[in-house]
Amino acid sequence: MSHVESPIRQKWVTNTDTYTKVTEDICRPIEAKPNLAWLAATAFSALVLAFGAAMVGWTIWEGIGTWGLNKTVGWAFDITNFVFWVGIGHAGTLISAVLLLFRQPWRNSINRASEAMTIFAVVCAGMFPIIHMGRPWLGLWFLPFPNTRGSLWVNFNSPLLWDVFAISTYFSVSAAFWFLGMVPDFATIRDRLKMKGRNIASWIYGLIAFGWNGSARAWSRYEIISLILAGLCTPLVLSVHTIVSMDFATSVIPGWHTTIFPPYFVAGAIFSGFGMVQTLMIVTRKVYRIEDYITLDHMESIAKIVTATGSIVGLAYMTEFFIAWYSASLWERYIFANRMFGPFGWSYWIMFSCNVICPQLFWFRKIRRNMVATFIISIFVNIGMWFERFVIIITSLHRDFLPSSWTSYIPTFVEIGILIGSFGLFFTLFFLFAKYLPVVNMFEVKTLVRHPQQPEHLKESAEEPVIAS
Amino acid sequence: MKKPKYWRGIEELNQTPEFLESAKHEFPTDVPFEDTLSNTTDEKLGFKANRRDFLKIMGFGMTAATLSACAEAPLKKVIPYVNKPDDIIPGVANWYASTTPEGTPVLVKTREGRPIKFEGNPDSPLTEGVMDAVGHSQVLGVYDIDRLQYPLKGANPVSWTKLDNTVKTKLQEIKANGGKVRVVTGSVLSPTTKAAVGVFAEGFEDFKHISFDAVSSYATAKSHEMNFGRAAIPSYYFEKADVIVGFSCDFLGSWIGGAEYSAKYIKNRDPKKGHMSRHFQFESNLTVTGGMADLRFPIKPSEEGIALLNLYNKVAKKMGGQVIPGVKEFNVAMNGLDKVAAELVAAQGKSLVVCGSNDVNTQQVVNAINYMLGNYGETIDLNNPSYFRQGNDEEMAALVAELDTVDAVFFYDCNPAYSSPFAEEISKKLAKVPLSVAMTYKTNETSELCQYTAASSHFLESWSDAQQTATHYSIVQPTINPIFDTRQPQDSFLKWAGSDQAYYDMMRAWWKETLFDGNGSFDAFWDETVRSGVKTVPGVPSALSSDVAPSFNLVSAGRALMAESDKAGEGTEVVLYTKLSIGDGTNANNPWLQEMPDPITRTVWDNYITVPYSDAEEMGISNEDVLEVSVDGKSIKLPAVVQPGQARGTIGIALGYGRTSGGRVIKNTGGKNAYPLVSLSNGTMDYTLTGASITKTGDTYPLALTQTFNTLYDPVRGASSGNDYDRTEHIIKETTLGAYIKDPYAGNEHREAMKQHLVTLWDSHFEDKETNKYIRWAMAVDMNKCTGCGACVVSCSVENNVPVVGKEEVRTRREMHWMRIDRYYSGEMDNPDVAFQPMMCQHCDNAPCETVCPVLATIHSYEGLNQMTYNRCVGTRYCANNCPYKVRRFNWFNYYNGEQFTDINPGHVTNPLGHFVLNPDVTVRFRGVMEKCSWCVQRLQEAKLRVKIRENSSLAKPTDDDLKTACSQSCPADAIVFGDLNDPNSKISKYYRDERGYHVLEELKVLPSVMYLTRVKNRTEEEVKFKEEADMRQRTYA
Amino acid sequence: MKKTFLLGKFWNPDDVMTALGKLRDQGVQAYDVYSPFPIHNIEPLLDIKRTRLSVACFIYGCIGALTGFTLMSLLYGAVWPMNIGGKPAIPVPSFAPVTFEMTILFAAHGVIITFFIVQQYFPGKKAELMDIRQTDDVFVIAIDQDRISGVDQTQSISNVFTANGAFEVTEKTFE
After folding, report:
1. Global pTM?
2. Across the interface, which of C108, C118, C168 has its CB nearest the CB of A176?
3. Subunits with at least 3 CB pairs below 8 A relative to chain C?
């Protein structure tokens, strides 16, 4: 906003003194022809996606037997990936909703991209509960619909069913929120393309601009509804990972049966999400030359959040272990000893070093503002958080109650292929988004432009104003 | 350039008018359908097509179409029960009494005329309805796709008439010039078969009928001949013995009487009586018998003799008898031999020493001890001997020696070319024999060497009888017509003997004159016998008659055994044993047996070398290391299985593997043939070898184990945290008889206190009046009775169409058995205590699996069943993850049509014969579906209906006698009890009230419906103390 | 029907606010203001009442919660009671998550749909633009010609515009 502000207030948009420059910068990729780098990147990720799709096809054709699971370890990569991707999603909603409620102006320039990330991550996540089923073609049975099979409705006691509700609600609401946020920007693009005489493109964006014309009445309702949705999304995002964590917390398996899981998972989710935001933003701001809108200060505040949530996660790990010991429950104690020193100990230590130790580097301002370092750390955070879910699922399952049934677990290339494929899907979607939709929220960033100047094309026109008589 | 115009003939070339005309009607149509159908007048036809014509043509068209369709249709024979055979009701099973080749009387369940399940015949006073795993698996034999379908000449089919003629003519020649004829059979239980052979033998100058057992107990018979003048294996009455001493004798497992002895043994092991038999076991391999023993002493084979001699002397001293001179002192831990001797003497006439050794000297000492203790006539019955093993090693050896001079040899029901040390010799000499015929229902190594293979019918297709002991007879009754062009050997014998009598008539005749008591009509007697399947005749009194003057030449025996014992220490000693499942290898083509985990090693589809725990630690051997064992010139390469309890300095190798002929399952089986290692020492087969050397070959061989963690404490011995994480009290509860008599809650003391902590917010679904009027199913497992024999596992697989998944899948830990027997070791690893725990779905009242299934594919019935709805299951596997007992099984593939299961899964669709064995009452599960123990719900429903009809009341509930689950029915030791908990008089209710009762993992409060009963060992305080100290000693390392 | 507006175009939101204030002093009520981004506190100057969307949202939420809980309770309590893991027929705690999600689902989507309805925005709607750049960087104050008494008032209004930094004053007519 351009009303009077103290000059020492943090500047979130740099070297920008006209509103139209914002529009110019953000619309550039949309209006320009797709360049080679973009084509190459998109093609590559599409290829990876195709590979993943092939693996999924093979699984459905042959059966889950193509995976490395066994009678004792019934879940491994499938649910690990599911929880991982859902977790990634949470940062987007947090930025768009929670930071909005907290009136954090810096969110304005990153919320669009991170919301997109949310949507795509949830798409990836949603895939796994389907393909992990033995008979995916019956996935419809997850939905509560009237049927002729007497009692065969769904089981409202099952956390897996809660997931169905949580994930679908989460996906649809975030998607709607995301779209609503883009409507004014669509209008902007529509009018710019019109001015440039690209009528077809303008018409297309006009379709989804819903006839937005920026009237003050629209704006006033628009701001209210954004607040309402933010208010709805905040508990929603917390509930989603709470419910995901209940997949484990409500079970009887030692290492899963833990009341700390909901907060622990939510913190972990935000942590991993922001890790992914870092990864994406560092690339995006470079590639799109929008360092003026996603500034080092932005990256720094993200890094701070990563450190905070990372520490919470670390605390959760320690609490878990303390309680396991304090419970004096044989099973709990063994599971956690086995987690650290058992056959899967290595995965535990990867998780611990990546999630607890790495982010602590962000205590140093130099590292926070060094994009290369940040990028590397963010990758480690992603790896670490994937392994967190792996550790929780595998180490708890493979040695539970009766030693007679203890087994080990070795993934097959099919499972690994599906994991890689999910990344392909994610990046394909993100690249498409980055090309055809505004990666930064224009109208919100404009409110951050300080001391705007009168642009050349808006100078006083020579002739007297026309007066109708 | 101009396009060339091609012409088809002169006419076309010069365009004659005729041609042009005909060209117009190139396809002349004489049937003017169009005109006719379009109702227009047509001059050419000269009639007006009307509705009738239309209908005619339509009718013709229809009929033509229909007929042509019929012509194409494939011809399938479907036989509807329009005129129904009055003894067959579709959907209702018929039961027929018969007898397995092992001599177990069985009831055969047939559905719509095909046998699908065996159950032990409860009318038999010998077995009292028990049967071992092998028996249960036998039903598959009749549907074995690899069985012979017609007689063979060499490898080519030949007609019966041709075969008969050649055999007859050749026999005529032999008769003429007085040649040698030999008939080699397994132990023939059937008296009438023997008679048939007798008929066959007539007229030959030099004829011998040789009985041959792959695993022989000839020494027992021979020693009795030497000592008591009767070459027979006595009947043993384990139920009468208060002190049982077993010397390398797996009498609860693969010894002579298998299941029968288990049942009798268990009778005297019930702590409720306040008295249990004491059971000491001396053995090298850890067997299920050793696992059940109160005290087990690992000894080497070479020490067996000296141990027995010492035992004899100690007993003799106590009883003031002659001691054997020149016997070195020998003893086992805690002066075991003195202890044993003392207890034996204390229980004179009520004790029993049994020995599995096939060495005459050893057996003599055993007989002497038993005689001295006056066990003959009490626990040992020589007057009414058992006929299970009649093999005569000496005659067999003699035959092999003279084989090349024999003119005709017939092999019936035996396979010496594989299962004897003479295999090579036989294969060499058999070629020289002018006439060699194998009578078998499946090709085997011997039949492949013979000129002719007389394809015999499966015993489910044949009439015969069996005499298990002097007093017990039973009938072999066909339950299905011969499926192929086969004939039962008895008929062949008669035919070749030139007799035109059918074997069935001969059998009736024999029964009439031998067993028919004369009152009433014979037909009535016969029908009754065939119905019940068994016949018992009063035996002679079992006391040794006074005119028997036993003679023991113990001095020479002692000398021989001492010489043997000096061999101890030189090299490793090898013990060849037979598994409960595969046995001597006859049934190697049976996938159920191949996939049945060995009760001790829990390994499937392979044989291997069992290496003692400590030796393995020293030699750095671990599972799957391939070892080469070389002993007197012979050597064998097999993977190692580290075996706690294996006597140090010995190794064990199972016989019955490595077959080269006999079917597709065998082709998919691992393992090597260990029979070549068997040696013939002073007239008997010797299954132990000394002076072997073991070398690591360096390579490894994958083994499929269904259980890789053997103890209830931390496998790494708490190396991580110095904590053992001992789970024992949560899973397996044990106590001693002494403690139990003092306090029935012994070993189970904490249960009541712990239950106080199990509070709930919710009311039980089963405690209100409303539900109590229903049945409430429950099960109990008496840990004190389970011998781990695995009969229930196979029986369950047969009843519930459990797929066989093969070695690879088992190796990835995906075995599908609904019912498994967990085996845990405790105590010192060189001589651990063994606990067997049958584990099936616990049907928890607060089932964790039910809560988490998103689609309600598994919910609870008001009869307390945890029901699995296969066609609702979408396969999230969440239920399996959340099952504390890990009893749920997932269909990772389509086992019934995936090509990797073609050969091994009997129910496979590509197997035209095998899938007839499937139980029509049980669904074959689809890929991606979860399955688990259903407590044989199909049996429960059937019983409920049966009772309602019988009582003519919809409220009638089945009682204990009305039903049993497959596992409880087949348990030889009666360890598994199933019934209605709401019926206060039911057996299960009594078990639930028992002080020993506890649930596994009870503190989880999933409220299982399976009650386990604390195991009671008959051990004294100091014995317990000694075992604990030994355990501590060993636990200190690692 | 034909409608003509007198437009003052600004490049700076602050000028818009001051201009609006001046106009109100003259008793002129602006028809609407068009801006590329929301100008805060402009509502009183245009007499825009606070929207009641939040009330609607609350109602939708209640409906959602009710639907969810009744559905589950009816199915398990009335239609076909089952024994699932020994739980009572209506295990209220188990119903919490689904009820909650239904609440959010109904509230969020309900309020968004309502917004577009009251705003009469729909896909492909033709936008009524005073200036093609008003979604980019131009701020427009539109005044309904019919509410202007005469030429001199028009003059004075345009004076107010120009005096307060309007770079252009013009008229636009919608057919």
Report:
1. 0.88
2. C108
3. A, B
